[in-house]
Amino acid sequence: MIHRARRLFSSQVRAATFARRRWRGLDPDQVYAYLDRVADELERLTREATTAHAEGELIRQALRQWPSRHADCQHAAATSNSWWHR
């Protein structure tokens, strides 16, 4: 049975079954070996997407905090530059 879900998970790919035909059709061993490769790739891509999402969130948090953390730096830079021009 092939699952019809909105999002495809590697466990669904691994659990897929196909009717066996005696005289025609695909070699079941080849089909299941290919499904294992697809499931492995799906797991890898899911891990990469999760990592990218987490990294993106860290970047968004850092960008939100940047102005308050560096407000004194701009003031100090303006003050020190005026000192050199005396």
UniProtKB/TrEMBL annotation:
Keywords of the record: Cell cycle, Cell division, Coiled coil, Cytoplasm
Keyword Coiled coil assigned: yes
Domain of life: Bacteria
Pfam families: DivIVA
Primary localization: cytoplasm
Cellular compartment(s): Cytoplasm
UniProt-recorded name of the protein: Cell wall synthesis protein Wag31
Species in which this protein is naturally found: Salinispora arenicola
